Amino acid sequence: MYKTMAHINSLKGEMAEITVIEQIGDNDYIVDYRGVKCHALFNWFVCEFYADDIYRRIEEKKQ
């Protein structure tokens, strides 16, 4: 896990700090943004993360 900056969907692309939790695909990451777990992509051309905290949220399963 590490902290970095990312473009946040709910902030209309503004940058904010995220915590990268794990990489689950070639360019798919699980990140935490202010307590919300969501998917993020890394753009290799500009070397920045893009986190989608609106449409690609990860909901915790209730037992």
What does this structure look like?
- With 63 residues, the protein is mainly β.
- The chain has one domain (2-57).
- The chain has no helices and five strands.
- The chain has strands at residues 2-8, 15-23, 29-33, 36-43, 48-57.
- It has a five-stranded mixed beta barrel.
- A hairpin with a 4-residue loop joins β4 and β5 (48-57).
- It is globular, with a radius of gyration of 11 Å.
- The mean pLDDT is 91.
List the main descriptive attributes of the protein structure presented here.
single chain; 63 residues; mainly beta; five-stranded mixed β-barrel; 0% helix; 62% strand; globular
Q: What's the total count of β strands?
A: 5
Radius of gyration based on Cα positions: 11 Å
Order of helices and strands: EEEEE
Q: Which whole number gives the mean pLDDT?
A: 91
Q: How are the strands of the biggest sheet laid out side by side?
A: 1-2-3-4-5
Write the layout of secondary structure elements.
Layout: E1 2-8, E2 15-23, E3 29-33, E4 36-43, E5 48-57
